[in-house]
Amino acid sequence: MDNLKAIQNKLEATEMWFLRRMLRIPWTTKKTNERVLNEANKRRSLVRTIRKHHATFLGHVMRRGKLEHLVTTGKFEGKRSRGRQREKIMDGLATWLGPGKVSDILAAVKDRDLWRDMIANAYKQGT
Hints:
By secondary structure, this protein is mainly alpha-helical. It folds into 2 domains: 1-31; 45-76 and 84-127, no CATH class. The chain is 72% helix and 0% strand. It has helices at residues 2-22, 33-64, 67-73, 89-97, 102-110, 112-125. The model has no long low-confidence stretch (mean pLDDT 79). One of its GO terms (molecular function) is translation initiation factor activity. Keywords: Initiation factor, Protein biosynthesis. This is Eukaryotic translation initiation factor 3 subunit f.
């Protein structure tokens, strides 16, 4: 039992070390773990807000159906480059909005109310 507690403490310390590194807080700065956790939670909500704005703008662009539509769906002719392929905008949006295919998302974009509901649900879930 005592060994289990020691392992748990080491895991928590490692987690705090990771958070401090990701937030670029130097070890010489006197910040409590509680303040670091609060700052990390603020950043998570900022990322969620950015994703929401990104999805609403993407819906606007997709409904227009012009050149931007072609660029975001990636339907160009020609050969793909070698190596690992870059992540597409639609693939990242599909993982954020939950289980579903890109074709389902493209169909949902056409209906503005359905699109707004999908974005609101993903934002509330905190993904």
